[in-house]
Specification:
There is one protein chain. With 359 residues, the chain is of the alpha+beta class. The chain has 3 domains: 106 residues, Release factor (Methane Monooxygenase Hydroxylase, Chain G, domain 1), CATH 1.20.58; 147 residues, Alpha-Beta Plaits (2-Layer Sandwich); 84 residues, 2-Layer Sandwich (Double Stranded RNA Binding Domain), CATH 3.30.160. It is built from 10 helices and 11 strands. The chain has an 8-stranded mixed beta sheet, with helices on both faces. Strands 6-7-8 form a 3-stranded antiparallel beta sheet, covered by helices on one side. It is globular, with a radius of gyration of 23 Å.
Amino acid sequence: MYELKKRIEELYARFEEFRKPLDLDAKREALKKLQKQSQDPNLWDDPDRARNLMQELSGVESEITEVDSLADEIETLYALAQEDEIEESLEDDVEKLETTLDKAELATYLSGKYDKRNAIVSLHAGQGGTEAMDWSSMLLRMYLRFCEKRGWKTEMIEESTGEEAGIKSATFLVYGMYAYGYLKNESGAHRLVRQSPFNADNLRQTSFALVEVMPELDDADESDMIIRDDDLDIQFFRSSGSGGQNVNKVSTAVRITHKPTGIVVSSQTQRYQVQNRKSAMNLLRAKLWALEEEKRMKEENRIKGDYTPASWGAQIRSYVLHPYKMVKDLRTEVETSNAEAVLDGDLDLFVDSGVKINH
C-alpha cells in the first residue's frame, strides 16, 4: 500500500507542476472571446476564417475541459491516499491517470509558431518503380488511418496514381489542433524492406518514399512571404481522379508554378476551379515557407553541427517485413516488432517520441 500511496503523491506533484504554467484563467477569458466571435451572424461569409475560429474554439474548450477533469480525478485520488487504508483497486485508476497526464505533458512540448496549425502532408515515391509506388500508397493509408484514430479529419488535395499499382505522389490536408506539431517530425525518407509481390521470384527488395509535412498557412501569413502574381504560371486541366462528372469533364484542376523557385503545386480533388486554386495557393505558401525554414535551420546549425533536411538522404525510419518484422526510428531508437499495427495507423509510439526530439 505504501508504494501505491507514493505513486499517487508523485502523480499529484507532477500534475501541480504541469498545471502551474497553463494559466487556465487566461484560457477561460480567451474561450469567452472566441465564443462571442462564433455568434457573429456574418461569420460564415468567410468560410476559412469561420473554420479556423471554430477549430480554435474547440481546441481551447477541449484543453480546459481535459485539465479540469484531470484535476478533479487526481485531487480525489490524492484525498483517498491520505487515509490510513486505500483499496488496491485504485491502482487501475492511477495507471489510467498517469497515461493521461503523460499525453497532456507531451502537448506542452508543442510551442512552435505553427504547431497548433493544420498540417499538409505530401508523399513521393522514390526510385524502384511499382514497388516504390506501392510503398507510398501503404504509407498514405498508414497516415490516413492514424489521423482517423486521432479524430482528425483529412482532405485529399492531389493524388497521382501509378501505372500498375500504388501512387507516384499524394498530398492531403489534416484538420486538427496541433496536427502540424505532432506530425512535423515525420518528415524524411521512409525505408521498406520486404519480399516484393511484384516479381515472380519474391526477391527481397528495399524501397523508399519521401514524406514532407508543412503547416497550413493562409492569407494572413503572406506578410512573411511575398507572392507576386507575376511570379506565378497558372494552368488549368481536367482532373484524372475521382470526384464526379464536373471534376472529370471540366478543367477544374489547377497547377501553379512559382517561377523564381521552380516549385510546382497542383490541386484537383475539389469540385470547382476556384476551390482548387485556393488549395493550390495554400500548398504553395506552405512549400515556400518550408524552403525558407530549411535555409534558416541550415544557418542556425552551421556552427552547432549537422543539419538533416527532409530529403532523400535523410532516412528517418525503417520498416522491415522480411526476414523478420520490425519498425525502427533511426533518430529516437524507438522500435517495435508489431509492424502490421504500425502500418495500420498505430503510430503513437513514434509520433509521441518524435515530439520530444528537440527537447
